[in-house]
Amino acid sequence: MLLLLFQAGENQYALEANRVLQILPRVRLRPYPAVPEYISGILNFHGAPVVVVDLSRALGCAPSKKLMSTRIIIAEYPGRGGEKIRLGLMAQGLTAAVKKDRLEFIDNVLNVPGVNCLGKMFREGERLIQLVKIEEIVPAELENMLAVPDVNIEDSA
Amino acid sequence: MSLRSSIIGVAILASVLPVLVTILVIPFQRNTFKKAIMEEMDASAKYEATATAGFVYDMCKVTQLGMEKRLSDHLRGANEELARLGGLSLSSETVSWTARNQATSDRIETVLPRMCLGTNLIVQNEDFGVESPLVDVVTKFTHAYCTIFQRMNERGDMLRICTSIPTVDRKRAIGTYIPQLLPDGAENPVITKCLKGETYFGRALVMGQWHAAVYEPIWDSPRKQKVIGMLYIGFNLDEINRELRETITTFVLGKSGYIGVIGGRGEFAGRYIISRKGERDGDSLINEQDADGKYFIRDHIAKAMAAPEGTVLFERYLWKNKNDPQPRMKCAGIIYFKPWDWVIYATMYEDDNYDLIAKFLKSTFRIMSIGAAAGLLVMILAIILAVWLGSAITRPISRVVSIAQQIASGNLAEARQRVAAMLEKIGINAEAQLSKQKELKNETDKLINAIALMTKHLATLVAQVQRSSVQMVSTATEIAAASREQESTVTEFGASTTEIAAAVKEISATSQELAKTMEDIKETAGHTENLADKGHSGLVNMQNSMTQLVDATASISTKLSAINEKAGAITSLVTTITKVADETNLLSLNASIEAEKAGDYGRGFAVVAREIRRLADQTAVSTLDIEQTVKEMQSSVSAGVMEMDKFSGEVAQWVKSVGDISGQLNQILEQIKILTPRFESVNEGMRSQASGAQQISDAMTQLTEGARNTSESLKHFHEVTSQLKEAAHDLQTEVSQFKV
């Protein structure tokens, strides 16, 4: 499977590429008032508003730095209720993709209550990288609002 | 002038002046008096004229109101009779008329429907012997005239068809008509009012005479659709006003004033309606001129008609009667009575009352003359009294004068004896009562007493002067001795001043020497100034070199800045390359994702994507290296610029220091320059001190001279003292003349 690598604080994390629609450069976001800190704002993706979550913040680190390598991933995944969820993820240091086999993964050793999105780990050179489960980033009550009608993007565009 | 004649003169003047003033003032007072009375008379004339005019106006008004009341009563009666007879209406039968215009006497032929009274037709009846219906009944019971008019045409000309008004030849005045248009083109106010369906009350011209009249419209039917005629009831005004006219013609204002009534409008304007004693009734006054040539009647009529109703005007004008040699002032109260168009005049001569004034003035003048005569008598009596009293007052004073003359000649002893004699005469003991002046009432006695006191005191004074002059002689002798002593002291003072002069000369010599020393010091100061000047110019050269150094440093700085700018440009290029590498990386990532989604088909594509990504990463690393190098270069250039700036600052500091030293040297120079003239001034001071000492020396010499002069003055004083002694002797001799 193809994994996208990114940084949050000192650590490296990975996302499954099959949930990713497209990677966008760090565009300007429209701020949204009175939302949790990990939501950076809203962007316009092919005419539809998409909520963007800052992964660094979601993983308990300082906000993502405004660098060229900080990019926005448009992810799409089935929600807890089965509906189609579209979410923007701001990730720092997103410049590389690696291919890994399922056998190379190590089970997560520490399950912290309240932090559900961290998954299995794997080795890449000297570094230990942890998978982030896209479908667990946003809590259930917020997820409902991110649902999009089940229409093919190419068709609607 | 002697005292006696003065006193008598004053007394006479006091009695004569009031009498003279009274006699002079009488004519003046008389004029003031006359003026006041005349003003009063004029005011009363004005009152009389205006009050009379107002009274006549009121009488007219009362008569008018009574008449209107009577007319409205008669009209009511006539209407009742008309209703009893069955009312007026037009029949289908016609009748032809030869109608005569009452204003122009023009005749026209016309055919009108015959009018009915009840069921009876009204016939054309001119004869007073034959009874006419309605009108004769009204006249019989009211003594007023009555007429039935029939409307002749649409315009509203009204034809008399049945009347009790007689013509000149004692026939009923039927067949005459009132034209709706007056000769001057205006509408007839009576007809206009009746055509509107209203009743007219007022004055109307009937067969050439003024009537107080009432006209009521006659309607075609009870529905009142059209006015077919008029019913008239009225009195001849002249008959009604006979009593009023009599009262007016016999009224006399003042001596020869009267009341006149003049017409106000139309053909009666300016014509006498009622004249004095009825002599000029009908005469026109419109062209009358007063003595000044003004058409005063026209003027007065216009003013009276323009004034508010019931207002009496007061006018004055100069009028010359045919019998009078001079024009006289007339005054008039004028008021306009509108219902009859009467301008009422109450007029009189203003001088009618002036005879009374003359009589009054004559009697007042007589009273004043008697007063003046009484004044003269009193005056003569006053003169006699003044002569007698004046002599009595002045006699004792003459005696006192002769005593004063004796005192003046020095014979005090005899004067005192005579005063004593006079005192005895007025009953005062010469020795005992001299000072008790308060008890004396008569001023003459007080004078004598005062003279007595004076002679007594004078005698005492002279005796004392005689004693004092002896004492004065001895004092003068003493003064002479003292002045001689002072003379010797002055001689000693002369010797001392000579010694002081010698000392001062020595001081003068010393200060001259000091002045010379100062001259030397001044020269030395000049040398110092030259040296400082040279040092200053050296420093200026050094300052110039420093400035050049600063300029060179600045140019190096500029060049370094240029290098810095270029390095900046390289950095921006590197940034662009970096951006491209970044975008390539992003593209390759997206490509990898797409390839992954394509599964086995995308495998080859995934390899290409990975290769692209690697290339992009390499580019990024190379550009990072270039960036690093450029940044290092930039920082070292910046360090160079900073060093240069620092160096430039230090050089500027040196320049400033050199400038400061130069400034300080300059100050020293300035001060030396200031010092030299100061030496000069000290030197000057020394020189002037020397000359001052010389002056003191000269002054001392003068002082010695002064002492000599004083000595001489003292000698002179001594002589004067001798003269004083002599004078004292003379005084002694002089005073001894008085026999005390």
Describe the fold and architecture.
The complex is a heterodimer of chains A (157) and B (740). In chain A, a hairpin with a 5-residue loop joins strand 6 and strand 7 (84-99). In chain A, strands 1, 2, 3, 4, 5, 6, 7, 8 and 9 form a 9-stranded mixed β-sheet that branches. Chain A has helices spanning 55-58, 140-143, 153-156; strands spanning 2-8, 11-16, 20-25, 39-45, 48-54, 71-78, 84-99, 118-124, 127-132. Chain A is globular, with a radius of gyration of 15 Å. Residues 153-157 of chain A have low confidence and may be disordered. In chain A, 8% of the residues lie in helices and 45% in strands. Chain A has 157 residues and is mainly beta. Chain A has one domain: CheA-289, Domain 4 (OB fold (Dihydrolipoamide Acetyltransferase, E2P), Beta Barrel), CATH 2.40.50. Chain B is built from 10 helices and 14 strands. In chain B, the strands form 2 sheets. Chain B has a 9-stranded mixed β-sheet, with helices on both faces. A 5-stranded antiparallel β-sheet of chain B has the order 11-10-14-13-12. In chain B, a hairpin with an 8-residue loop joins strand 10 (258-263) and strand 11 (272-274). By secondary structure, chain B is of the alpha+beta class. Chain B folds into 2 domains: 39-354, Beta-Lactamase (2-Layer Sandwich); 486-740, Helix Hairpins. Chain B is 65% helix and 14% strand. The model of chain B has no long low-confidence stretch (mean pLDDT 81). In chain B, helix 8 (412-425) packs across helix 9 (443-597).
The count of helical stretches of chain A stands at 3
Count of discrete domains of chain A = 1
What is the distance, rounded to the nearest whole angstrom, between the alpha carbons of the first and last residues of chain B? Answer: 35 Å
**Strands of chain B, count:** 14
Low-confidence stretches of chain B: none
Intertermini distance of chain A: 29 Å
Top CATH class of chain A:
Mainly Beta
Structural class of chain B: alpha+beta
Number of strands of chain A: 9
Number of H/I helices of chain B: 10
Return the string of H and E elements of chain A.
Answer: EEEEEHEEEEHH
The average pLDDT of chain B is 81
What about the largest sheet of chain B?
9 strands, mixed
Percentage of residues assigned to helices of chain B: 55-70%
Helix content of chain A: under 10%
CATH architecture of chain A: Beta Barrel
The CATH superfamily of the largest domain in chain B bears the name PAS domain
CATH fold name of the largest domain in chain B:
Beta-Lactamase
